[in-house]
Amino acid sequence: MSRKAGRPAEKTEARESLIRSAKLLFSGMPYEKVSTRLIAEKAGVNSAMIRYYFGNKEGLFEAMITSVMTPILDSMRRHKQSPSSQSLESIMRAHYLVMSKDPEFPRMLARIMMQPPSEVQRQVTEKMFDQLVGTLGDDLLFTQDKQNVFRSDLDVKKCKLTFISMLMFPFISPPAILEKHQIELTPTFLEEMLQHNLSVIASGMINTKVQNQDNT
């Protein structure tokens, strides 16, 4: 009786373990070098569990990407419903919280986005990016533009590009560049970089009148 009660939890743990192992392996190795057998061995489960939960390697890859990016997408959806001058700051905090846990993950995303559009992993990643910087991003930014959240002398499209750049760097900076400038992506540095970016957004992009209204 007790064994039956434990099975759902064990299955859930097996699924989560596969996603964690897939993230580690896909982040550190080329997609084509990562086999389902290798992922299963890393997770300590039978490879049949991949077929059971995800169908195949592509399905597991998509589940892994979705699992990691969901907190950021959720933050964007919340702020899309009720945007304010704090929206960009909150989204950036969510992004940094996710990416700082594993700096190799954003490098993997950048690497995959440079692959041919026909590659399955590129298609999966691009679908996620379309939500982040496409539909949701445009809805949020252009809504803020209509509400005069941005400074009137700034172009919203350029604000979007600036914001994306802040999200992606320093995570995808070439290691040689970081080393040359004696930058190490430690938790302390990333927290300081986050605070720096938030300060730049608050003082350089946001309409101070709207910001003061939101703070009252």
UniProtKB/TrEMBL annotation:
Highest taxon of source: Bacteria
Annotated keywords: DNA-binding
DNA-binding region: 35-54
Protein name stated in the entry: TetR/AcrR family transcriptional regulator
Domain HTH tetR-type, residue spans: 12-72
Species assigned in the record: Vibrio breoganii
InterPro entries, per database record: Homeodomain-like_sf, HTH-type_Tx_Regulator, HTH_TetR
GO molecular function: DNA binding
Annotated Gene3D superfamilies: Tetracycline Repressor, domain 2 (1.10.357.10)
